[in-house]
Fold:
Amino acid sequence: MAQRTKSSLNELLVNLFNHVMDAESKAIITEEFSDITNNDMHIIEAIGVEEPRNMSLIARRLSVTVSTLTTNMNGLEKKGYIRRERSREDKRVVHVILTPKGREAFFHHRDFHKKMIKAIVKDLGSEEMEILYRCLVNLNHFLESKEG
Structure:
């Protein structure tokens, strides 16, 4: 790959990251959800709507410690986005569940991501989609590795 192309690709990735963060903030932190941050919204996404999740699983999904997550959970609970319940099977385990307000925030955030993905792939054929997917998998592996 020519040096100019590598430099352009790097610049594009940096710009994309900044634009996604800015666009996401503007799109999801609306008047209805003005009491939370992008970080809070990502915690809500990690909790999900399927089934109650324990704190350890949520922390792992976010790559943070349970103690860091606990601080954020306290705020989300005070604001009415989540509730915590002790497990019936093991009282040491705390499950986190989205309240109706938390579920609204979850779906609001998910809709932004659906629109973004639709915009990314709108003109791509199946072969190009596969190449894009492989590129993003490679980027993800790099970011998850010790090199990232």
Q: What stands out?
A: The beta strands are 53-54, 82-86, 94-98. The chain has a mean pLDDT of 89. DSSP finds six helices and three strands in the chain.
